[in-house]
Specification:
heterodimer; A: mainly alpha; 2 helices; 0% strand; flat; B: mainly beta; two-stranded antiparallel ribbon; 1 helix; 5% helix; 53% strand
Chain lengths: 75, 419
């Protein structure tokens, strides 16, 4: 059976999701680098409005911390 | 002998004096929590100026100016309190105000000096309450939101849930949101049926239709600490929209002549308002990866694959390299690439067939590639920005966007955090 690229990506994502949970345990006192403000695992607050215009100027949206509904975005 | 007495006396006085400075504190029983009143934690003010220009306006059927400016602002307050049980309750209030001017919207009715929706202000407040446990990191919250602009109104509600593993290296986040929107249907002037209003509330009392658009979205996010320098997140955010998804003031011109049966004297040919299906399923899947390379360089990477039932497939990749000039100043150049296969309902000006059920000439739904490049400067000195202790951080971000369809834009953002 030939798998589509999106299906392969989904399978890879699921593999990553379950595979990564078996990583080494990092203790709280070892997280000084991970706690750096630039290491936050989310879009920056200052990206808020660029994500809005990208949502309007491109057809794809979501999964990046930007909004996924509400407001028409019709201009 | 006298020297020894003097030394002992000095030693005694020294010890006594040192004890006087540090009066023993009563030992606090940490097993019992203490309630704390509501306290202001953080204020964020974000402002952005956006300008774009292009020549594929959907309002005029895929041709014409796309010039648009938007001045967007949000102000958010974050307050928290602790209950007697030790739970932290965080309240976030956000107020957003955008003001835009759009050249293409002015073409809805080119005969008027300024038609409805040529310029508009959008106001969007939202409120979030989250209860969290500092020990476990687990949290639960609810959100209510509202958005209002001239022809569009949106009521939103949602919940968020966070679960952390015992070692706090794995985090699962769930977010579910519902938006119940109502759209005032404004039509291009020549395509309005007899008696149909322009939508301008004060000048035109004739009725216009109001149609719903509802959105339902869920977001599943799994974050994992991989090592002392690396952490990743996998985000899946399926969503569903139902209702009026076409923008009915956007025109479509066809490849052959036919009478549309609209217009003041049924004299409109070869032209209709945009038509799109009444439902849309979207599935974006994204991976975010942050790597602390060394004391000066950090790598922030993002990739997203997107698919929906309108035939759109997209790949988006983003790379940002924060460079720490000092511990408190960083410059982060970034680059974003997007490649999108357009919707099956899209065709340029004059290329749609009149036999098609769904049609649009909105280039936002076309096949395209885009590049976005810029930099982010962040200042977060320990004694506050400009020496003002409460001014926690200042970010200035600027970017230039180019799209293969010819659209170009620039954005400048200023983000200030006060604590």
């Amino acid at each position: 059976m030939k798998k589509s690229p999106s299906m392969l990506l989904l399978l890879f994502s699921l593999y990553m999701a379950f595979g990564l949970t078996s990583c080494m345990s990092v203790k709280a006192y070892q997280k000084n680098r991970l706690n750096d403000s630039e290491m936050e695992l989310a879009a920056r607050k200052s990206q808020k409005f660029e994500q809005s215009f990208q949502l309007y100027r491109e057809a794809s949206s979501g999964a990046n911390g930007g909004k996924s509904g509400g407001g028409c975005g019709c201009n | 002998m006298r020297k020894i007495y003097l030394c002992v006396a000095a030693l005694y006085l020294g010890i006594a004096a040192s004890h006087a400075q540090t009066r023993p504190q009563p030992v606090k029983d940490t097993s019992n929590y203490e309630a704390r009143k509501l306290r202001l934690d953080e204020i964020n003010i974000i402002s952005a100026y956006y300008h774009q220009d292009g020549n594929n306006s959907a309002v005029t059927g895929g041709i014409g100016s796309e010039k648009l400016t938007d001045f967007a602002n949000t102000f958010d307050l974050q307050l928290s309190k602790y209950s007697l049980r030790g739970k932290k309750h965080t309240f976030s209030f956000e107020l957003g105000i955008d003001h835009y001017t759009s050249a293409s919207s002015d073409k809805i009715d080119p005969n008027t000096v300024s038609s409805a929706s040529m310029r508009d202000t959008r106001v969007y407040p939202s409120l979030n309450w989250t209860a969290s446990n500092d020990k476990t990191g687990n949290a639960f919250g609810l959100t209510a939101s509202y958005s209002h602009e001239f022809d569009y109104q949106s009521f939103g509600g949602g919940l968020n849930l966070t679960r952390l593993s015992r070692d706090k290296n794995t985090q699962f986040d769930l977010k579910a949101q519902v938006f119940m929107d109502t759209w005032k249907v404004i039509l291009p002037v020549e395509l309005r049926p007899p008696g149909y209003g322009s939508g301008a509330e004060h000048e035109d009392r004739r009725p216009v239709d109001n149609r719903p658009r509802n959105s339902f979205s869920t977001s599943f996010s799994l974050s994992q600490v991989i090592s002392q320098r690396l952490q990743v997140a996998l985000i899946v955010e399926p969503s569903y929209q139902k209702g009026l998804l076409a923008t009915e003031y956007q025109r479509v011109y066809f490849n052959s002549n036919f009478a549309t049966g609209v217009g003041p004297t049924n004299n409109i040919f070869n032209e209709r308002v945009e038509s799109l299906p009444g439902s849309r399923y979207k599935l974006p899947i994204a991976v975010r990866l942050n790597y602390f390379l060394d004391d000066h360089f950090i790598v922030r990477a993002f990739y997203r694959y997107y698919t929906d039932n309108w035939g759109i497939r997209a790949h988006t990749a983003e790379l940002e390299i924060p460079v720490k000039l000092t511990s408190f100043v960083s410059v982060s150049p970034y680059y974003r690439y997007n490649n999108q296969q357009g919707s099956r309902y899209f065709a340029p000006y004059g290329q749609h067939s009149p036999t098609e059920t769904y049609y649009t000439s909105d280039y936002d739904l076309s096949t395209l590639t885009s590049n976005f490049v810029g930099a982010n400067i962040r200042l977060a000195p320990p004694n506050g920005v400009f020496g003002w202790q409460r001014f926690n951080s200042l970010e200035i971000r600027a970017g230039h966007y180019t799209r293969s369809t010819g659209l170009n834009s620039n954005i400048v953002t200023l983000a200030m955090k006060f604590k």
